[in-house]
């Protein structure tokens, strides 16, 4: 009966999503081979009021990120109500995660039980250390693979790359009549259980999107199969979302939480650019310690201004008749939502928004949007890629080449063991013994043993000889280190799944700037990360540009940063010692290995091993050909 | 014995206070906060000084696990004057020992004189107070030159002059030179005495009202409600205006230290040197290491006790709460002090906090002193002994949907069939046509397949009163017929059914007119009684829900989940929206709020956020979650009166 209802529900939707009306609902189509029941419901609309489609915007927001050329206002009628919306480009982005359990592998070989989130969309992107967030068209190209997701990259690197399918388990829900899609959403309830159970990752799937996007994040609670005594709900807390709604804030006391066997979709209009993070908010000392933590960042619209645009004018233009990019053109300031002089006091007079993210810089430095000189040179940066920025700085002060999302965490093995063995956990005695960067401790931070110098990351299609892959999402943008393969862990059902896919090794070609998006979700103590040799330039702090209200940049140059749980910073690691006025590098840093490590010396350990812990390398190489990408 | 007596006294006092305050407490289910403290009667004309007579004494504090923890605290040696004036006069109390100590409210420029009497058990030895940020004189202070001359009061100590045991006194004098929030605490054997509870806060109000700030009693943002502020601004600076204020003092507590102290104090008091076989100990030998706290306190209380009222009678020695409430757009001054030896990353859900000052030092731009330069943080660190003043607000700006769930009044009917002949579409509804659908009316058709049927059209003809059909002209032709099977309506959250809607009035019953900042305020003509005062107008009437449960699709981007597979929290008002009338727009199949949302009842219908330590271990009470450094902050609808005394 339930199946019948759901089938009808999905088939009606399929018909509806083809139009360009203000219809929103469009879950990926149902897999005819699977036909599961339950209350799982995945959604990713192809058309919304903000992103109504090509006829209104001149681009398809489900297949393409809209450029930023200043705000424009459209008038629409929604359910008979005439409304005005301010559009600024962007796209519809979607992601799906499972909430459940799983195992991970510590650097001393210990397999640790986790409560955790795992990927249910963008599977191949996640496995290759990239954000799993996708354009709607990619997400809705539903998942179809001959083999269940595995950690072949770790446990059998050579066979994985050459023989591929031989090291994988067959996916019983594979439909050979449809194209293979490794990144599409897992939408069928049977597939959600087949793939979602015990697929936990640490950190949870990386999410990244752009300002002006709408982000639909579906959480499917698959239950914790190793703890059948628990009937835990899970939630997503988008930590740091400014002016958040309580409804989508994920605090179970303040709103709802999704039960086992159900899905719920969180909806966010992208907030101001910055390094945020997300985690479950059910019994936080337990669910966070157990591993339900992850990274999330928002890229600024300054990335999307056309090449040649004056960056200052793009955020400061007065909108008094000029074209975008001129001082009198439309800009961030001409949309009250992102302007800096709104909010303020109770008298209604214009006053500086005391929490404004991006004050206009004190002066126009003349910086313009350019093509990154490493585009096409560094294999991680596709040809033609423009400069990226941490914030809408207006002066290129937060420009960088390589995104390095990095999360600090700590695991208390006793707590995890007690949690796995059905015993009550104590909180006051919690003592972390593993100290993790992206779920890895040294030496796993610098690569999986036996895998250094392995074959280059293959395209998603290369693992399989079957039909065409039809993903639109570009692979290769911003992956900090594709050479560092996913760590796999054999779970209690004998299957090896990838458990720690994010790399924590940083590789830079001389002259490149990395943006270290550093966050800490340790639940017990403060942690310090220090840099040997490369100065740390803190340009952002807790998802805000470090700049005073008068527009003066206030970066902090140091060699260490200390974070408590629930904090983040943006750190530029520059492999150039001296830069010219146009930001080109005149004196690069010498090639070599530079370390990031913790001066909390007792955190340089992997439980009983007194060498390891919170440490990784920054490898600086002279050219692309000498880098081990 | 002494501690037993103390226990009895506090219990009695609690009972009396309970009888006094019970009527007030029963009147409201929620409690709010303000920054209660003690001040002094208005100084005589021409004198700019203020005097406090404080004690240090032993007492017990209560924790939510039922523990009564032996503590030492500062308190009042006599009758106190409560601040802000006229707010806590009926319910306020200042016992001889409380944790934290009395919050001292003074004014910039005042000469502050504090006499401390040491009523701690004799075994505790000397005690004292230090005031970081002020130049303190324990003798005679020349307020003009700052010279400290004459005979020092009290007895000599390491950091400051101290009060000797058994009623010894010491007098400290200083000029409250600059505004801000600062700590005070014991300067004697601090690892033990501060741990035992000898700490408190001093708030210095600015002595001017900066331009742009609203004087006490005339703040339009308070919508005519009671003004609980101590001052109109945190500092003598226009960028520090505020509308509400709260004070949080963070402290961790290791109960083993307290038990040791309690046992030893009792043993020393009971030891008779003439009959004891062994020499009687004279001083405490309490081990404060290894330090292993089990309790994490805000204002001396753990969650959920911190959300009970200020001066709630069940906490006779922990008068201050942590329970912030605010209206949209309120600039909320958060005064915070790290009183313990640990740091605590405090996460304010809902928005960032702009740090104004640390230890009372306003952080301004180096190039423009009118502008702020403190950081914005969503997790604010407290450092041992350090304070900060910060501004938080919540306005809902940028959500992309109407936080109140507003829409224009309209009626909706479900469509069963649609057929096209040429370019004329004939629509049949399930049930009679709404009377507003008449020739010439604008209707919106959606959800009908193929999509060519959908859009906003002018009604051409109808079947008349009681009919179920109407026609309109569609620019396309050749569309296949549309029929929806009635079974589709059984799908609890099923979208995809055709809907026709028509406005019943084009007048917005709750208009939102943007002021220069984009909000609906007095400046753009909002009455102070507006149910949506300070609404972010760019999102006004913008729908959130595409296809919520209950078939009341609002046209928004997001489809809601099935309520039957979710669990609801005690502070959930049952809707995504703000305000008592939002319950009418509840999306659930059953009336919400579900169960008993006593912490956020329907008449309040605020939206709740958790404010808590993000070293999450610290949101527990002696191994039990939830507890510790955790509170719920509520953004209340403007029509809800926030009574900060309850």
* Contiguous helical run count of chain B: 3
Mean pLDDT of chain B: 87
Query: Which residue ranges of chain B are poorly predicted, with pLDDT under 50 across at least 5 consecutive positions?
Result: 1-30, 486-495, 547-553, 588-595
The helix-and-strand class of chain B reads: mainly beta
Shape designation of chain B: elongated
Terminal CA distance of chain A reads: 52 Å
Q: Give the distance, in angstroms, between the N- and C-terminal Cα atoms of chain B.
A: 35 Å
Percent of residues of chain A in helical segments? 10-25%
Structural class of chain A: mainly beta
Query: Judging by the overall fold, what is the CATH architecture of the largest domain in chain B?
Result: Sandwich
Instruction: Write down the domain tally of chain B.
Output: 3
What share of residues are in beta strands of chain B? 25-35%
CATH domain class of the largest domain in chain B:
Mainly Beta
User: How would you sum up the global shape of chain A?
Assistant: globular
Rg estimate of chain B, integer Å: 31 Å
Radius of gyration of chain A over all CA atoms, rounded: 24 Å
Query: Superfamily at the CATH H level of the largest domain in chain B?
Result: Cupredoxins -  blue copper proteins
Give a verbal description of the structure:
- The complex is a heterodimer of chains A (629) and B (646).
- Chain A has 629 residues and is mainly beta.
- Helices cover 10% and strands 27% of the residues of chain A.
- Chain A contains ten helices and 30 strands.
- In chain A, strands 15, 16, 20, 22, 23, 24 and 26 form a seven-stranded mixed sheet that branches. In chain A, strands 3, 4, 5, 7 and 10 form a five-stranded mixed sheet that branches.
- Chain A is globular, with a radius of gyration of 24 Å.
- The model of chain A is unreliable at 1-29, 153-167, 342-348 and 449-484 (pLDDT under 50).
- Chain B is mainly beta and 646 residues long.
- Chain B folds into three domains: 19-32 and 302-397 and 605-635, Immunoglobulin-like (Sandwich); 37-245, Cupredoxins -  blue copper proteins (Immunoglobulin-like, Sandwich); 410-570, Elongation Factor Tu (Ef-tu), domain 3 (Beta Barrel).
- Chain B has three helices and 31 strands.
- Chain B has helices at 2-26, 190-193, 255-270; strands spanning 37-39, 49-62, 68-76, 81-83, 104-107, 111-119, 140-141, 148-149, 169-175, 180-185, 199-205, 244-253, 295-298, 325-326, 332-338, 344-348, 353-358, 361-362, 376-377, 379-382, 387-392, 410-421, 424-429, 442-446, 455-462, 469-473, 482-483, 498-503, 566-568, 607-613, 630-635.
- In chain B, strands 12, 13, 15, 17, 18, 19 and 21 form a seven-stranded mixed sheet that branches. In chain B, strands 22-23-26-25-24-28 form a six-stranded antiparallel β-barrel.
- The model of chain B is unreliable at 1-30, 486-495, 547-553 and 588-595 (pLDDT under 50).
- Chains A and B meet through α1, β2, β9, β10 and α8 of A and β16, β19, β24, β28 and β29 of B.
């Amino acid at each position: 009966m339930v199946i019948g209802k759901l089938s009808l529900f999905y088939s009606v939707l399929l018909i509806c999503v083809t139009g360009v009306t203000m219809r929103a609902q469009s879950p990926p189509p149902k897999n005819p081979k699977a036909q599961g029941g339950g209350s799982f419901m995945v959604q990713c609309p192809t058309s919304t009021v903000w992103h109504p489609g090509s006829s209104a915007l001149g681009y398809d927001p489900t297949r393409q990120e809209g450029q930023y050329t200043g705000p424009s206002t459209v008038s629409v009628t929604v359910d008979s109500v005439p409304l005005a919306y301010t559009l600024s480009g962007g796209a519809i982005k979607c992601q799906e995660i499972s909430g459940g359990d799983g195992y991970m592998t510590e650097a001393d070989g210990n397999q640790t039980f986790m409560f955790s989130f795992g990927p249910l969309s963008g599977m191949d992107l996640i496995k290759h250390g990239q954000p799993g967030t996708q354009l709607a068209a990619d997400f809705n190209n539903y998942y179809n693979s001959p083999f269940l997701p595995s950690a072949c990259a770790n446990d059998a690197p050579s066979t994985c790359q050459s023989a591929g399918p031989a090291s994988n388990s067959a996916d019983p829900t594979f439909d050979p009549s449809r194209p293979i899609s490794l990144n599409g959403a897992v939408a069928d309830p049977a597939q959600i259980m087949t793939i979602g159970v015990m697929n936990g990752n640490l950190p949870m799937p990386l999410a990244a999107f752009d300002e002006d996007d709408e982000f639909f994040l579906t959480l499917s609670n698959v239950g914790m199969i190793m703890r059948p005594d628990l009937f835990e709900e899970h939630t997503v807390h988008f930590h740091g979302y400014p002016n958040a709604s309580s409804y989508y804030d994920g605090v179970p006391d303040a709103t709802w939480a999704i039960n086992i066997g159900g899905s719920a979709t969180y909806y966010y209009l992208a907030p101001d650019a910055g390094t945020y993070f997300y985690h479950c908010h059910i019994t936080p000392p337990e669910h966070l310690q157990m591993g339900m933590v992850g990274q999330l960042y928002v890229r600024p619209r300054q990335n999307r201004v056309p090449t040649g645009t004056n960056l200052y004018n793009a955020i400061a233009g007065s909108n008094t008749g000029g074209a975008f990019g001129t001082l009198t053109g439309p800009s961030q300031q001409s949309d009250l939502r992102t302007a800096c002089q709104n909010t303020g006091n109770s008298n209604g007079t214009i006053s500086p928004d005391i929490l404004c993210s991006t004050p206009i810089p004190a002066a126009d430095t003349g910086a313009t949007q350019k093509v990154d000189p490493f585009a096409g040179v560094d294999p991680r940066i596709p040809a033609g890629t423009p400069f990226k920025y941490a914030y809408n700085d207006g002066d290129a002060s937060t420009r960088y080449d390589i995104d390095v999302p990095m999360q600090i965490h700590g695991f208390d093995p006793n707590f995890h063991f007690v949690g796995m063995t059905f015993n009550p956990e104590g909180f006051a005695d919690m003592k972390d013994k593993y100290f993790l960067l992206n779920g890895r401790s040294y030496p796993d931070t610098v690569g999986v043993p036996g895998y250094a110098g392995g074959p280059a990351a293959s395209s998603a299609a290369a693992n399989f000889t079957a039909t065409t892959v039809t993903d639109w999402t570009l692979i290769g943008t911003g992956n900090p280190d594709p050479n560092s393969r996913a760590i796999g862990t054999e779970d209690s059902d004998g299957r090896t799944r990838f458990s720690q896919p994010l790399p924590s090794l940083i590789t830079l070609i001389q002259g490149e700037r990395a943006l270290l998006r550093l966050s800490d979700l340790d639940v017990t103590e403060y942690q310090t990360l220090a840099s040997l040799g490369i100065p740390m330039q803190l340009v952002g702090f807790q998802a805000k540009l470090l700049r005073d209200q008068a527009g003066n940049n206030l970066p902090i140059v140091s060699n260490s940063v200390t974070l408590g749980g629930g904090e983040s910073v943006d750190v530029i690691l520059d492999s150039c010692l001296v830069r010219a006025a146009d930001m080109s590098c005149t004196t690069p840093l010498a090639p070599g290995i530079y370390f990031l490590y913790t001066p909390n010396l007792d955190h340089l350990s992997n439980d009983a091993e007194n060498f390891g812990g919170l440490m990784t390398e920054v490898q600086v190489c002279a050219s692309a050909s000498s880098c081990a990408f | 014995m002494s501690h037993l007596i103390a226990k009895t006294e506090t219990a009695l006092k609690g009972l009396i206070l309970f009888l006094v305050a019970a009527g007030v407490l029963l009147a409201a289910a929620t409690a709010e906060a303000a920054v209660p403290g003690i001040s002094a009667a208005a100084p005589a004309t021409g004198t700019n000084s203020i005097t406090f007579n404080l004690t240090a004494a032993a007492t017990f504090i209560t924790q939510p696990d039922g523990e009564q923890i032996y503590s030492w605290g500062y308190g009042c040696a006599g009758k106190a004057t409560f601040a802000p004036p006229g707010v806590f006069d009926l319910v306020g109390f200042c016992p001889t020992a409380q944790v934290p100590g009395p919050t001292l409210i003074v004014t910039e420029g005042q000469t502050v004189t504090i006499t401390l009497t040491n009523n701690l058990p004799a075994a505790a030895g000397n005690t004292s107070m230090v005031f970081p940020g002020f130049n303190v004189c324990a003798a005679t202070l020349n307020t003009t030159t700052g010279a400290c001359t004459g005979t020092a009061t009290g007895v000599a100590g390491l950091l400051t002059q101290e009060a000797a045991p058994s009623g010894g006194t010491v007098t400290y004098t200083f000029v409250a030179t600059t505004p801000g929030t600062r700590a005070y605490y014991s300067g004697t054997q601090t690892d033990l005495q501060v741990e035992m509870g000898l700490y408190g806060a001093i708030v210095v109000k600015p002595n001017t009202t900066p331009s742009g700030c609203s004087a006490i009693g005339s703040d339009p943002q308070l919508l005519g409600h009671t003004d609980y502020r101590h001052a109109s601004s945190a500092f003598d600076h226009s960028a520090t205006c505020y509308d509400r204020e709260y004070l949080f003092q963070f402290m961790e507590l290791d109960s083993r230290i307290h038990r040791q102290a309690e046992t030893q104090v009792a043993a020393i008091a009971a030891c008779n040197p003439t009959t004891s076989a062994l020499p009687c100990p004279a001083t405490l030998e309490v081990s404060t290491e290894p330090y292993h706290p089990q309790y994490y306190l805000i204002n001396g209380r753990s969650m959920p006790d911190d959300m009970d009222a200020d001066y709630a009678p069940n906490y006779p020695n922990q008068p201050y709460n942590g329970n912030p409430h605010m209206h949209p757009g309120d600039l909320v001054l958060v005064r915070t002090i790290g009183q313990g030896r640990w740091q605590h990353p405090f996460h304010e859900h809902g928005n960032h906090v702009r740090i104004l000052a640390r230890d009372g030092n306003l952080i301004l731009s180096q190039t423009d002193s009118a502008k702020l330069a403190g950081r914005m943080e969503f997790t604010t660190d407290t450092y041992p002994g350090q304070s900060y003043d910060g501004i938080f607000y919540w306005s809902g700006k940028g959500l992309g949907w109407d936080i109140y769930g507003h829409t224009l009044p309209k009626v909706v009917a479900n469509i069963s069939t649609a057929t096209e002949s040429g370019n004329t579409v004939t629509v049949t509804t399930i049930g009679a046509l709404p009377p507003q659908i008449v020739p010439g009316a604008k209707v919106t058709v959606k959800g009908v397949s193929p999509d060519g049927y959908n859009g906003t059209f002018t009604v051409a003809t109808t079947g008349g009163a009681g009919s179920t059909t109407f026609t309109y002209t569609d620019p396309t032709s050749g569309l296949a017929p549309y029929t929806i099977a009635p079974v589709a309506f059984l799908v609890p959250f099923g979208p995809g059914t055709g809907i026709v809607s028509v406005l019943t009035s084009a007048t917005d019953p709750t208009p939102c007119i943007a002021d220069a900042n984009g909000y609906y305020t007095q400046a753009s003509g909002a009455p102070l009684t507006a149910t949506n005062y300070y609404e972010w107008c760019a999102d006004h009437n913008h729908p959130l829900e595409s296809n919520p449960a209950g078939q009341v699709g609002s046209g928004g981007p997001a489809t809601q989940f099935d309520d039957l597979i979710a669990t609801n929290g005690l502070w959930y008002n049952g809707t995504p929206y703000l305000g008592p009338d939002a319950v009418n727009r509840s999306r659930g199949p059953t009336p919400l709020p579900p169960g008993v949302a006593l912490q956020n009842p329907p008449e309040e219908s605020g939206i709740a956020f958790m404010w808590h330590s993000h070293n999450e271990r610290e949101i527990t009470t002696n191994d039990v979650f939830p507890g510790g450094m955790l509170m719920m902050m509520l953004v209340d609808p403007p029509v809800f009166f926030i009574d900060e005394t309850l």
